[in-house]
Design a protein that fits this description.
Largest sheet: 6 strands, mixed
Structural class: alpha/beta
Helix content: 25-40%
Order of helices and strands: EHEHEEHEHEHHEHHHEEHHEHHEE
Shape: globular
Number of strands: 12
Distance between the termini: 26 Å
Strand content: 15-25%
């Protein structure tokens, strides 16, 4: 399945800077509203160190990670539902996304221009105000959509169902300063503002500085600030948790690959993410656990240890399953 996340936030909260850091796509970042005129899109590999190990074991150089698509959504400001900023141009782009990442600035800076010109004195109040503005605009947009649907259904009762913006799961990405990264009291209070939604904490400036670093260098750099993972890693973990997703793996001489599926997916449903014919003609699947393969050293050793299982249509996939599907599609 394709994972698509829309990134929203008021002007000057660090949204485009974080999008650049997430995707290295070079979106324009500037300290004034509407720097992002059209949605910027970046498709990013999901970090998965298991693929490196599998590529080594299967002696293949081809590694195909799962991917996530980020959409930097423009024009969402106070009054957007009534035509302010870029008006409702953002709506279609959010509707196409499975989740919303709401970037919220959570530090004070007199040099940053707020859209409402308000002078900032309290981080929590500022964050709450910004969150409320975005939520209100999404709600107002939904209210307008509901009115349009009701009018259409008077003429056509079979009118299609429209996904409402306020029904989409939200992950809150708080853009904190360097002190905020390690301020557990502040982070606890910010989490409380958005519970039960997931909240993650990043520093846009540090993320920007790491844009040319590899994964190992990023982790080492962040460790010096007491942080375990970068914005990409934190956001993907939060997205998988929020949306109830997991990964399974396929491995062989040709390639090693990660695939994204819903938790609770059956083996045939997982096969269908590779190709619809695999699901339609599913016969069985051979499954082993990634940890067993790494511990025992080879597929043959896994089989000899009785840890290679042949499963049928009712098997529920688990995180880290390595699978080979058996199928037959009649012409």
């Amino acid at each position: 399945m394709n994972l698509k996340i829309g990134i929203v936030g008021l002007p000057n909260v660090g949204k485009s800077t974080l999008f650049n850091a997430l995707t290295n796509a070079g979106a324009l970042a500037a300290n004034y509203p509407f720097a992002t005129i059209e949605p910027n899109i970046g498709i990013v590999p999901v970090p998965d160190e298991r693929l490196d190990k599998l590529a080594e074991m299967y002696e293949t150089e081809k590694k195909v990670p799962a991917t996530v698509e980020f959409v930097d959504i423009a024009g969402l400001v106070a009054g957007a539902s009534k035509g302010e900023g870029l008006g409702n141009k953002f709506l279609a782009h959010i509707r196409e996304c499975q989740a919303i990442c709401h970037v919220v600035r959570a530090f004070l800076n007199d040099d940053i221009v707020r859209a409402d010109q308000e002078v900032e004195t309290d981080i929590l109040k500022q964050a709450k105000d910004d969150i409320d503005i975005i939520n209100l605009e999404l709600q107002l947009a939904d209210d307008e959509t509901k009115e349009k649907i009701a009018a259409k259904r008077k003429k056509d009762p079979a009118d299609e169902n429209i996904p409402f913006l306020t029904d989409k799961p939200v992950i809150y990405m708080f853009n904190v300063d360097e002190n905020g990264l390690v301020d557990e009291e502040l982070k606890t209070k910010l989490k409380a503002l958005v519970e039960p939604a997931e909240a993650i904490f990043v520093n846009a400036k540090l993320e920007e500085e790491m844009s040319d670093m590899n994964r190992t260098e990023r982790k080492e750099f962040l460790e010096s600030y007491g942080v375990k993972d970068d914005a990409l890693g934190e956001l993907i973990k939060a997205a998988y948790s929020t949306l109830g997703l997991q990964s399974f793996l396929t491995a062989g001489k040709k390639e090693v690959r990660a695939w994204t599926i819903k938790k609770g997916a059956t083996a045939p449903e997982a096969a269908g993410t590779i190709h619809t014919d695999f699901e339609r003609g599913f016969i069985a699947a051979e499954v082993m656990k990634y940890d067993d393969l790494v511990e025992l050293g080879s597929e043959q050793n896994v089989k000899s240890a009785g840890k290679l299982a042949t499963v049928g249509k009712t098997y529920i996939m688990e995180e880290g399953d390595i699978v080979e599907f058996k199928f037959n599609v009649s012409k």
